């Protein structure tokens, strides 16, 4: 409505308005540069793109633009460069989007049927894609999400099938929804309004009923069980001190040291250790003094482990240190192994328990079980898996390495998780052993530690008998 009103006014009036919107929105991007998600999703930081398109449309209605093949080709170059060279993790929002937007503007303004780019864009195949482009835009994400959801464990994503389905749905939407709705002769305003009401009311009713009933049965319980196991919480990721948030005692007797594979044991160890457990973990770090990502100041693994080990050595109450990892890096290179050896030797006056790597699943377990539950499979058997052929060798290599340290006990977790070559992932009706492909859930950590403690108790009884 605002655009319609502005289109009736003077050129400078609406041009000034959209220039102001354009500038203010770009300023919002500048201020929101520290929060890329905000910059990507919020209208304040994306309004400049809409303003750019509006300015082009209104200017083209009021003035005659002389075609210019050079400027049009420059625009195409900018668009192609954006598609091929942009880093999707950094350039999806923000000022970098000026490049494809300016490129698109140049193409729209300066291409015509008389120049090279205009002729290329006038080809029937290109025009067809243009006609269904809005439907392509609307369908591409929902179709991608639902396609991945209906895939069962082990099935591969077919790009060809996805593209065929995407174009088919988009064409049907354009042909039977977009075209009729754009024709006032076929659909009058009263018919359009009535149709929208008839479509909206059932959707609203479905949403209200789902909200009142809590959605799918046991959905909340499942998602609660599948939340990421961060130990005491995400605030303790990177913690290197004993404090009220990341320690259950001011004088803890157990320290959990390592990365995200270590932190999964924190909560259950805390439940089993009344004398206190402190969490000293940093995800994405190999255990040791080597920075996995060189030059990244906010993820210095060397600094983290230096400070964490110093805390352990300066805290006499800590007698046991629990370490875990997938250990994909720690023994892979000489510098990593030397670093781990140095760390273990620095803690030679402590009892160290190393929990070995969990068998890695070929898919995300939480997502797999949720899909199974969503589609009526209450067994969850398709989410089970067998350990990789390389897993026993990996564990044996680790066991041989840690065996050289008298103060280190290495614990193979494989038999706690998998029996007879099968790793059953579903636990009860609304829980699982893993949350993703390798990290234990809260319940999974409870099962593993319970099995370890039982085995420890059985071995002690057997030793006492002899």
UniProtKB/TrEMBL annotation:
InterPro entries: Acyltransferase_3, SGNH. GO terms for molecular function: acyltransferase activity. One of its GO terms (biological process) is lipopolysaccharide biosynthetic process. This is Acyltransferase family protein. Residues 243-448 form the SGNH domain. One of its GO terms (cellular component) is membrane. It comes from Vibrio harveyi (Beneckea harveyi). The chain crosses the membrane at residues 12-32, 38-58, 70-86, 92-111, 123-147, 159-177, 189-209. Keywords: Acyltransferase, Membrane, Transferase, Transmembrane, Transmembrane helix.
């Amino acid at each position: 409505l605002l655009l319609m009103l502005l289109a009736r006014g003077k050129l400078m009036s609406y041009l000034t308005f959209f220039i102001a919107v354009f500038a203010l929105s770009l300023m919002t991007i500048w201020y929101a540069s520290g929060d890329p998600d905000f910059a990507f999703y919020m209208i304040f930081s994306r309004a400049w793109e809409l303003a750019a398109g509006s300015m082009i449309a209104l200017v083209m209605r009021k003035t005659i633009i002389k075609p210019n093949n050079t400027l049009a080709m420059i625009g195409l170059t900018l668009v192609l460069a954006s598609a091929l060279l942009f880093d999707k993790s950094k350039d999806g929002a923000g000022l970098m989007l000026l490049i494809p937007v300016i490129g698109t503007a140049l193409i729209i303004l300066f291409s015509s049927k008389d120049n090279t780019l205009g002729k290329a864009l006038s080809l029937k195949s290109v025009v067809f894609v243009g006609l269904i482009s809005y439907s392509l835009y609307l369908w591409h994400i929902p179709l991608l999400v639902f396609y991945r959801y209906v895939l069962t464990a082990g099935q591969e994503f077919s790009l060809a099938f996805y593209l065929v389905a995407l174009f088919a749905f988009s064409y049907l939407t354009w042909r039977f929804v977009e075209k009729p709705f754009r024709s006032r002769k076929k659909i009058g305003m009263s018919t359009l309004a009535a149709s929208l009401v008839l479509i909206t009311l059932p959707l609203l009713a479905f949403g209200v009923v789902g909200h009142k009933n809590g959605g799918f049965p046991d959905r909340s319980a499942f998602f609660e069980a599948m939340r990421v196991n961060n130990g005491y919480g995400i605030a303790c990721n990177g913690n290197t001190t004993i404090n009220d948030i990341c320690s259950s005692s001011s004088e803890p007797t157990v320290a959990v040291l390592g990365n995200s594979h270590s932190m999964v044991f924190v909560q259950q160890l805390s439940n089993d250790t009344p004398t206190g457990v402190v969490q000293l973990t940093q995800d994405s770090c190999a255990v040791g003094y080597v920075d996995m990502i060189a030059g990244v100041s906010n993820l210095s693994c060397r600094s983290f482990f230096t400070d964490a080990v110093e805390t352990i050595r300066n805290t006499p109450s800590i007698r046991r240190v629990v370490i875990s990892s997938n250990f994909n890096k720690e023994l892979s290179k000489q510098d990593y192994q030397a670093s781990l050896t140095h760390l273990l030797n620095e803690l030679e006056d402590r009892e160290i328990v190393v929990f070995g790597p969990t068998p890695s699943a070929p898919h995300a377990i939480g997502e797999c079980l949720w899909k199974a539950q969503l589609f009526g499979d209450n067994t969850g058997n398709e989410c089970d898996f067998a350990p990789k052929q390389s897993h026993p060798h990996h564990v044996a290599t680790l066991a041989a390495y840690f065996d050289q340290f008298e103060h280190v006990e290495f614990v193979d977790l494989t038999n706690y998780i998998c029996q007879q070559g099968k790793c059953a992932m579903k636990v009860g009706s609304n829980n699982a052993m893993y949350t993703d492909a390798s990290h234990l859930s809260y319940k999974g950590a409870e099962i593993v530690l319970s099995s370890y403690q039982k085995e420890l108790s059985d071995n002690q009884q057997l030793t006492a008998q002899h």
